[in-house]
Amino acid sequence: MKVLGGAAAVTVETAETEIFNADVSDIDEVAIDIANLGATALNAFRIFGRSHPSGPWNLLYSAAADFTTPVGDVVFCKLASTGAAHSPVTLAGATRVMLRYRTTGYDGLRLTATVASGTTTKNDGA
């Protein structure tokens, strides 16, 4: 899996795996390119936010509908290939989505993912 702006290579497993963690205290909105470069589909994708550096991470979005019919801070989540609304919750292998998210009022933004079995890889970079 490739998340531009995230950390170095990470293998997404059946245990919840952090794929992105950033200080967004001075950012109003982020656009995150999420590409599953492996063959295994995701079975969970979650967005967490926190209001200050030492605060707890609060689960904000995790259901497919949170991304396909966005409300609140999710601006859009679209397939890179067609521009159609798409959820990263079950992101198939060799598929990429662009997530645009409002971060006003947050100190941090964290994304996690899992697979049902096996692994898939998230690589970062341009």
Task: Provide a brief overview of the structure.
By secondary structure, this protein is mainly beta. The chain has one helix at residues 64-68, and strands spanning 2-3, 10-12, 17-23, 29-36, 42-50, 58-61, 74-79, 95-102, 108-115, 120-122.
Q: List unreliable stretches of 5+ residues.
A: none
* Element-level helix/strand string: EEEEEEHEEEE
Distance between the termini: 13 Å
Range of helix content = under 10%
- Percentage of β-strand residues: over 45%
Number of helices: 1
The main β sheet shows up as: 4 strands, antiparallel
Strand order in the sheet with the most strands: 1-4-8-7
Class based on secondary structure composition and strand pairing: mainly beta
- Radius of gyration computed on alpha carbons: 13 Å
Rough shape? globular
Mean pLDDT over all positions: 87
Q: Total strand count, please?
A: 10
Please give a structural write-up.
The protein is mostly beta strands. It is 4% helix and 46% strand. The strands form three sheets. The chain has a four-stranded antiparallel sheet with strand order 1-4-8-7. A four-stranded antiparallel sheet has the order 3-9-5-6, with no helix packed on it. A two-stranded antiparallel ribbon has the order 2-10. The radius of gyration is 13 Å and the shape is globular. The relative contact order is 0.38.
